[in-house]
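User: For documentation purposes, I need each entry recorded in a consistent format: the amino acid sequence on its own, followed directly by the corresponding structure tokens. There are two entries in this batch. Please keep commentary to a minimum and don't merge the entries.

Assistant: Recorded as requested. Entry 1:
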Amino acid sequence: MIQATNNAIRRRIEREKGDAVLMANRAGIVPDAWQSDLLQSDAKQMILLCSRQSGKSTVSSILALHQAIYTANSLILLLSPSLRQSQELFRKLQDFYNALESDSLPQAVEESALRMELSNGSRIIALPGKEATIRGFSGVSLLIIDEASRVEDALYQSVRPMLAVSGGRIILLSTPFGKRGFFHSEWTDGEDWRRVKITADLCPRIDKEWLERERQMIGDWWYLQEYFCEFVETNDQVFSYDDIQAALDSEIKPLFERRN
């Protein structure tokens, strides 16, 4: 009887190792179709342009937890503009971990409100969006940047080298915040990204009547960004993004050329 139980656990572990959807189901999550697709993807770079409350944090947390459990010695960093936001993403991950049956999991040997270390050597760490606090990390297996449109460009450029040697994955998730910054740039012009756009009307958990009332409450500028994922011009912008792009000409030589 015990042997049969152990064999069943081993078979389940092997199935879940190759399919994060199965682990999500065991944690009580029934993913939407787009979430299941991402959970089964092996893309190195993902950018999730998704409405508020669409489930982007949920799918990112499941991906991070699956990485930690099934790939030993993984280093996973959760980064956002503030420590509170990173901590919220980490708390969601903890809840999913606690919802799984503990007999088949690497045990948490160290755990706090900001980090978890598992018995298989994997670490999950929540960090604020401050360059001084994160520069010491290297060999990152998975880097998740939440509310990426609000993260400073300089910080983004300083964390990307953490993936250089490890060949780790990166996930950017956010709603838009104007036509500016690295999030907008990577979405429009970045190379080798798997792009996913989920607007509020595609999420079965968001009531359509509530959405219409919300539009009347907050106005089009916020509504189109927060719920329909449109990169809207900033309020203080003198020239539109499209006008600026149209004015550029790659054939015109600069007045001054940089010298080494």
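Entry 2:
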Amino acid sequence: MEAFPAYFPLSGRRIVIAGEGDGAEARTRLLAGSPAQIDRVQGEAALQPATYAGARLAFVASPDVGVCQKASEAARAAGVLVNVLDHPELSDFTTPAIVDRGTVVAAVGTTGAAPIIAALVRADLEAKIPAALGPLAALFGRLRAEIRAAFPDLARRRAFLRAMLEGPVADAAEAGDLAGAEQRLRAAIAEGAAISGCVWLIAAPAARDLLTLRAARALAAADLLVLGEGAAADVSVLARRDARRESLKDADAAALAQEAAEGRQVAVVAPAGEIALLAVVLADLGAAHEAVAAAPA
């Protein structure tokens, strides 16, 4: 990882956009829907440190490289992080390609090396991230305390929220009925919705791109990741970094069954033969499990 991605809260903050031209206009459009105070400056004011005092971030755009350099130095002198369009060497941070869903923001960056690649990935994500996901995330945030009180166990809380991303709550949000979505979510919290755990049995693919979407989702949801000897090393990166990890040779089938019984998600990635044997044992134990095959080559 050559650059660490981070998110800056913008509510109540001030952002300076210095310079002129299409680049400055594009930055203004990018930030127009944010809750930050956006100040546009040009000319001599863009070169003065006082202009940037108290700002959270600064963006500089100008066809004149000399202006870009002097403006970035002025912002830095005021203790403000600065991005200079088309000049990563003058920047403290680079601007990623952004998918904006309000509370949910996805960003794809290439540390300024190949913005076109980031833009292509962003276009793919735009088609996959529903518009209602932002309002739904905001609703989860408003009811965070109630959800935490109802589901104090972190794994069960995650499972509950995953369940709410499908079904009546998500359907109401998708239809724009946020009041209805909140009503349904409160009802689910009050009822203590049952949390279903599962042991996902994923046949280790020859390459990561042969994983099915179902397998990738199981890995992303896993509270426990169990890896067999034949699992490709790059498959595990699809799991959450905070998911517990075990080797299949050290794992106990009864313990995996218990994890599922307690509402947790377990993803096992191993050669097809080992997956088949484990499936038999889990079936004998009456454990909730599902086999996921690799995509055909």
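Summary note for entry 2:
Residues 115-128 form the longest helix (14 residues).
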